[in-house]
Amino acid sequence: MTWRTCTRSALAAALLAMALGTPCHAQTVAAPFNTDYTIDPLGSVPGLPTNYGGLTFKKGDADTILIGGAANESAGQLYSIKVTRDAANHITGFSGTAQVYADAAYNDGGVVYGPGDVLFLARWPVNELGQIEPGSTEAGKIIDMAQFDIPSSLSALGFVPPGFPGAGRLKLVTYGGGNWFDAAVVPDGTGTYDLVDVTPRTQIVGGPEGFVYVPPGSPKFTDHSSMLVAEYAAGEIAAYRIDANGDPIPNSRVDFVTGLSGAEGAVVDPLTGDFLFSTFGGFNQVVAVRGFGVPPCGSCVSVPGCTDTCDVEAGECRTCGHPFSNSRCVVNAVVVLQGALGMRECELCTCDVDSSGTVNATDALLILRGCAAIPSELECPDPGTATTIGQ
């Protein structure tokens, strides 16, 4: 066990001891944000081993969270857990017991999806970045971060969302020096990715862990201008303005949530914009902060069990008749035809234009009619709606 591991374990124990003697109301949204945002502790995840690591929503399933257990340990794993939601889609708790999703040794505050639906995981204290391919239960690639002069150890990472400065770039941060790096990823030909153009950008404080970019439409934040950082050592969530590259501006830091113990992972709920963070120690729980704007594709849900496709580049929903792009008319028809022929997946929400319950060549033909400016009133699977297919 390294000295740094011992130090962090001791800190976790101290934070837990503090938490046991501190009332829950010590978790406080700082002014001026307290007029618009509220804290809602969701409690511990049933069956998830302590200490908790980072978390994200399972790709294509907004009702399942992936979260690290036995964080920072060689025996660490990634677990899946279902969530419960209220009538407004806010998460209210957990359903069932956490199940092992994949091996995730040394998982820490950063668990995020990248290109190709590959999961990228920060590995602390070994200063590595792991990648788990879709359908795999273990890291198919592990990158030693020391080769990029990233000091020990990488603790969290994230891709800049569409609409923000530096969209698509990979951001990396270390605990506890707070060294912040920018990078790009390129396919390595095997389904995973290499890091290139790894560049030091700045340094932030508080023992940074998971971070997110604040969704547009959030009170007290200018759209596409800010981020939140979980500060493990400081026991706070900090808000930063970001620069033209999507990096935090150090002297812009302000308190957002205070009185925490072991703030660790960070994620934005894709349906509501709620900010969720996990804690390493500090009761090992998940906490929701509500009041943020709904992410651009958060309104894509149409009917139960079916979600309209999210155009991640444009940050918009693609509705019935637009499975590929809101603006690429003929390409949409080709994609639907490929779905009808079994050459690709094409969900009913966006591809079943004639509401037949299947994806077929007629759907593609109807889209082409629209491309040729031959209007057609067509029923889509979303109850009570009708869409005119056009260009």
Largest sheet: 5 strands, antiparallel
Between the first and last Cα atoms, what is the distance in angstroms?
A: 62 Å
The CATH architecture of the largest domain is 6 Propeller
The radius of gyration over CA amounts to 22 Å
Q: How many domains make up the coordinates?
A: 2
Short account of what is shown:
With about 400 residues, the chain is mainly beta. The protein is about 10% helix and about 40% strand. The strands form eight sheets. It has a five-stranded antiparallel sheet, with no helix packed on it.
Characteristics:
mainly beta; 391 residues; disordered C terminus; Neuraminidase; disordered N terminus; Type 1 dockerin domain; 4-stranded antiparallel beta sheet; 5-stranded antiparallel beta sheet
Structure overview:
There is one protein chain. The model is unreliable at 1-6, 15-25 and 383-391 (pLDDT under 50). α2 runs antiparallel to α4. The protein is built from 4 helices and 27 strands. It has helices spanning 3-20, 329-340, 348-351, 361-371; strands spanning 28-29, 38-43, 55-57, 64-69, 77-85, 91-103, 107-113, 119-123, 128-132, 141-144, 154-159, 170-174, 179-187, 193-203, 208-213, 226-231, 236-241, 254-258, 263-268, 275-279, 286-290, 301-303, 306-307, 309-311, 316-318, 377-379, 386-388. 47% of the residues are buried. It folds into 2 domains: 3-290, Neuraminidase (6 Propeller), CATH 2.120.10; 301-388, Type 1 dockerin domain. The protein is globular and about 65 Å long.
Give the helices and strands, then pairings.
Elements: H1 3-20, E1 28-29, E2 38-43, E3 55-57, E4 64-69, E5 77-85, E6 91-103, E7 107-113, E8 119-123, E9 128-132, E10 141-144, E11 154-159, E12 170-174, E13 179-187, E14 193-203, E15 208-213, E16 226-231, E17 236-241, E18 254-258, E19 263-268, E20 275-279, E21 286-290, E22 301-303, E23 306-307, E24 309-311, E25 316-318, H2 329-340, H3 348-351, H4 361-371, E26 377-379, E27 386-388
Antiparallel strand pairs: 1-18, 2-21, 3-4, 4-5, 5-6, 7-8, 8-9, 9-10, 11-12, 12-13, 13-14, 15-16, 16-17, 17-18, 19-20, 20-21, 22-23, 24-25, 26-27
